[in-house]
Structures are given as structure tokens and as C-alpha cells.
Amino acid sequence: MQNKDYANLKRNMLSTQVDISKFKDFDFEKATDEEKKQQDVMGESTTFFKDGMKRLRKNPLAMASIIILAIIIVAILVLPSIVPYKYDQSMMANGIRDRGATNLGIMEYSKAELERIDAGEKVFPHIFGTDSLGRDYFIRVVYGTRVSLSVGIVAAIMVLIIGLVYGAIAGYFGGMVDLIMMRIVDIIYSLPDMLLIILLSVVLDDVLKPIIEGTILAKLGSNMISMFIVFALLYWVSMARLIRGQVLSIKNNEYVLAARCIGTKDSRILTKHILPNCLSVIIITTALQVPSAIFTESYLSFLGLGVSIPMTSLGSLANEARAGLQSYPHRLVIPAIIICLIVLALNLLGDGLRDAFDSKLK
Amino acid sequence: MNNNNNNEYLLKVDHLKQYFPVKDGFKTLQLKAVDDVSFAIRPGETLGLVGESGCGKTTVGRTLLRLYQPTAGRIEFDGDVLFDSGEQYDESGKMIVDATGKPIRGKKIDVDMLPYRKKMQMVFQDPYSSLNPRMTVEDIIGEPLDVHNLYKTKAERRERILELMEIVGLNAEHAMRYAHEFSGGQRQRIGIARALAVNPKFIVCDEPVSALDVSIQAQVVNMFEELQEKLGVAYLFIAHDLLVVHHISDRIAVMYLGKVMEIADADDLNNNPIHPYTLSLLSAVPIPDPETARNSQRIILEGDVPSPLNMPTGCPFRTRCKYATEQCAAEMPPLKDRGDGHFVACWNK
């Protein structure tokens, strides 16, 4: 075999190489097919999404946040059909308003209800008591959470869509286009958003009322609509800046040049090559946008600029509770805790998503 | 193979210039990445392009493919003019100007490149950044097919992709994998398959092996040669490794600071270099035998490469050339034929 060729070579004294001439052919045994197969260490082909989810599952904080959010979402979807009260309905006894049912504490019953229970009737308990108008507080909290959460999600989606399109175009085309588009962003950045929301709600109130009359939107009230419009007008700027920065760095990759060399159209390069590569940033920022929108909604409602009565949100519930704070502190504490839970869970989830999907932290 | 015209060249580049604006405070300077470069490539031929980093090799390749808008010059491919800025040149290579010193311009030509993207392609230097990490191999190789509508059914597309993977020596089972699951050599093969997907006549290979380690370099270079035999493509092979370039090229062009200094047949250039810059480049090639290496003389150039923002007058190499004279400072030497297609741009040698 080849040993002969090596035998003629002078061997260095200090060489640590295996001296093949010392071995005979029968010292070796051929590997069986099974043994060869063991050498094939091949990981499963994973996609970007699967890979990220795997890492997300290992993050206990993020998983706890997902569970809490899932419970809250299921609760606000299911509970209104289980609880026999409505958010805008005062407690009734024998066809007239039950005056004893106002300002009840947690799990308390009014006199009229106690009589009905004694008579063998079943009465659904007021889990969080009732408010000063005799409305069941639990169902109001459920509806408030519904409104707050949907405001957060709708606002985040609007911010995402506008910011994504604007930022991607500015970043991709660069040069003069970028310069002008980013100066517009700077101008919007410098506007005081609170002032704009107040002005817009006053102006839009008159304009929007006849338009939304009779639709589902009417229940939310024109204040809510103007809040959405403000979100759409103002809050996308930070998203747009972020996406632009990402696009600017990604478009210099050789695979973008390769795509241009192939003759790929700009729109296809953006959607197929550039945006998928800033997906991690997009997911994370959108997740973090939801709590910030909920916060804005909450303090606007607290100031009385949010949803119109009798519809409620977590912020306006807290605002109403201010009046009886000394006697009924739970009415402030409950919506406050729920706001905290949602915001905390979404922030932790956003952090977890960033850790799981951001390839730079791998 | 090139029977639709009687032009013997597949690609002809004349007086190509590519300047980039560079902002320096309030002034805008011009970076002359490629300055008056002319060469031609025959069908099925490989032209090697060498030079140190920053001399404009890559820019030449990218400008040819019109990934950059050329500042001036003329690019002719397969009998069609792709770009012509309209300047006219006389026999000796000087721009024809009118009485006021302005160049006399002919017709400007600037065609839509999309149909030509099917005929000229590019293989990139870095196999890690030239493949989109979010796409499977199938999609990466299939993208040129999608863009140019080169298939009728999904099955046809898949068949073509598998065929291409086979040509470049990739396992068909790997079609659904992502680029990060491959080694450098395999990734470069994916990049080559993508370039081959449209059946090009001409491929710009932009340092395709410099990011790979030596054993893989040999595999990939040999594959380039096999593909050329099989498919008859012409290459512009850009590299800074003279040994690799000598191995694969029919002819070699040497660039320095955006200008071509010498063009010759590969063997001719290797055995009989004329330009002082080529001489020093060749002397820097490592010799595998230590005995010969000890005895050979290395020509070490003095000084640094001048900034392309502030080019020396005349010949750009004169600041580091020991033969430099006043004439070198006054005027750039034209690229002159010294016999057998050996072109050199030097006044003194």
C-alpha cells in the first residue's frame, strides 16, 4: 500500500504524526455502513421562524407573558356572554332601579338581591361590586380591557403599516428622496402630540359624529376615532426611522446587489430581500408599540378625552374611581392592576421576542 | 458560437470611466475608481483582472453589468451597444475635441438592461453575504428564473433548479435548506448556480475564491474551468491572487489605480512582464520552494498607493516607479501593442 512511499521519507525525530509504517493492513477494520451513518451529524433544517420560536419557548418570562395575555384575551372574549349583566345596565329590582345596588363592595349583594336569593332565585354575584350608578363593575372592567387592548393592537398595526412603508421607501431609494422624507419625519417629531390630540378631538368631534352615526364606531365615540387618527398621523415616525435605518444597512449587502444583477424589480427586492431581513426588528417594535398605545389611551381617558360614556376603558374606569377613592379604593386598584399586567406582559414578551429573533444577540 | 454578428469580441469596453462623488466638507471631490479602461473579451475566453485592493477591479466588473451608472465610455456586448456616453476618440486614444476644447459628442446610448441580464451575470466575492439568509437554496437559484419567466410550470422550475444544483455539484436533497447551513465552498457553488440559471454568455467573477480556503479554492477554480468547457461562457475573472488568475485565464489585465497597465496572454505576462508594476507584482508571488524563494529577488515598491481622490498627474504609477521621468508626470502613456497582443502602458520600458 502507500506505506512503502512513506517508508523512504526521513522522519523527523520530533514529529508527532502517526507513523503509518508501524501498522499492518490487518490492524485496521473497515467501517460498516451503520458506523458510517453515525458520522453523519446533520441538524434538522430549520426556518427563521421555527428557530426563533424554539428560543422563545425557553424564555420563562416570555412564556408567562404569553399565558397571561392569552388568559386576558380569552376572558374578554368569553366573559360578556357568561355574565348576565351589561356594561351600561343598572341593577333592576321589580322593574325599577335597585337603589340599594349602588356602590356595592366586592362580592356583595343588595337587599333586593338577598331577598331574591332567599326566595330560591339564583343571582349572579357582583364579583367586583357595583359602581355609583349600580352597574356591575366586573363586566365594566371586562369591557374596559376589551377597548384598551383593541386600541393598543389597532394602533400598533396602523403604526406598523405606515412606518414600514414610509421607512422602507426612504431607506431603499436614499439620496434626495430619503432627505426629504426624513425631514418630514423630523417635523412631525417636533409636534406636541398631546396638544394635537386635544385639538383634533375637538375638531373631529363635529366632523365625525354624523359620519359614524349608527355604526359600531359610534359606540367608541368620536374621541376614540380621533385618537386613532392621531396615532396614524404621529406615532409612526419612530417606526419609520427604525425601519429606514435597517433598510439602509441591509441594502448594502451583496445579496441585494446580486438581486439587482439578476434584474429583480425594486418592489420585489424590497419585499423579498430587504423586509424579511428586518423582520425581527419589526416584530419587536410592534410588540412594544401595543403597551405604549394602551398607556396613551389610558391617560387620555383619564383626562376625559378617551371613549365616550357609557362605553368605558381601563383609563376612564380609573378616572371615575377617583371620586370615591377613600371609600372604594378597589375601583381604582382593579383597572390599574390590569393595565399593569397587560403592559408588563407585552413588554416582557417584546423583550423575549427580541432575544429570540434578533440574530445579533444569538 | 457567436454567429449572430461578425464581431470577434463578445464584450468590448472602450474608455470606460467610473467616478464617484465624495463629500469632503462642503466640497464634492471625484473618486476616480475606474479611469479610462479599455479591453475586450472573446466568446468563451477568460480575461483575468489583477491589481491590489482598491485599484478598481470590482468597480470595473460592476460597471460592466451596469450595476453602477458609468460616468463615461462605451460598453458593447454581443454586437449591441449597452452604453455610450458619446465621446469620440482618435486612433491614438485621445479624445477628439472641438476648437473650444469641449469634446465632440456623438449619440448617447443607454439601453434597458433587463434583457441583457439574461446574458451577463455575476458571481460575488463573499459567499456569506451574497446569499439571502431568509431564502432557501431553491428560491435563491430560482429567483432569476422567476424574474425572467423562464419556466411554464412549477415542475419545470424545480427540474431546472435541480439540474443547476447538479451542474455545480450540490446535492439535490439540499434544495430546501437555508444558506447558513452550508460551508463557504458550497455557498459559492450556490452563487454560481444562481449566475448560471439564465444561461449567460458572460460571467463576471468578482474574486470568487478569495474568501475560501486554499483546498476549496482549487475545487471552485476547477469547476469554473469545467463549466467554461461545458457551457462556453466567457469570464472576467477578478482576483488578487496571481497564481489563481494565471491558472484560469487566457489573458490577464493588470490594473493600478483605476487604469490598465498591461494586458497580455497569461503565459506571456508571467514569463515576460514589461511594465514595472507587473514586475513587482509578480515578484511578490510566493514561491512554494524555499530554496528558490531565498534566491529570488523581491521588488519592493516604495511609498503607498496614492489616494484615488488625489491622483498624480500623468501615469499614476510614477510616484513609486524607479524609471519615472518628466514625461511620466506630464502625460499618461497610451496602452501600446508590443507584439502578439501584449499591450503595455509605459513610456520607458
Oligomer: heterodimer
Give the strand tally of chain A: 2
Q: Order of strands in the sheet with the most strands of chain A?
A: 1-2
Write down the domain tally of chain A: 2
Percent strand of chain A equals: under 5%
Low-pLDDT ranges of chain B: 1-6
SS summary, helix count of chain A: 16
CATH homologous group name of the largest domain in chain A: MetI-like
Q: Could you outline the blueprint of secondary structure elements for this entry?
A:
The complex is a heterodimer of chains A (362) and B (349).
Chain A: H1 3-8, H2 33-39, H3 48-57, H4 60-82, E1 92-93, E2 96-97, H5 111-118, H6 137-173, H7 175-189, H8 193-212, H9 216-220, H10 222-234, H11 236-250, H12 254-262, H13 266-274, H14 279-302, H15 314-321, H16 330-357
Helix pairs in contact in A: 3-16, 4-6, 4-16, 6-7, 6-10, 6-11, 6-14, 6-15, 6-16, 7-11, 8-10, 12-13, 14-15, 14-16, 15-16
Chain B: E1 11-24, E2 27-41, E3 46-50, H1 57-64, E4 72-77, E5 80-84, E6 109-110, E7 120-123, H2 137-147, H3 154-167, H4 184-196, E8 202-206, H5 214-231, E9 234-238, H6 242-248, E10 251-256, E11 259-265, H7 266-271, H8 276-283, H9 290-295, H10 326-330, E12 336-337, E13 343-344
Parallel strand pairs in B: 3-9, 3-10, 7-8, 8-9
Antiparallel strand pairs in B: 1-2, 1-4, 4-5, 5-6, 10-11, 11-13, 12-13
Helix pairs in contact in B: 2-3, 2-4, 3-4, 4-5
Kindly list the characteristics that best describe this protein.
heterodimer, A: 362 residues, MetI-like fold, two-stranded antiparallel sheet, 65% helix, B: 349 residues, alpha/beta, 8-stranded mixed β-sheet, 5-stranded antiparallel β-sheet, 10 helices, 28% helix, 22% strand, globular, disordered N terminus
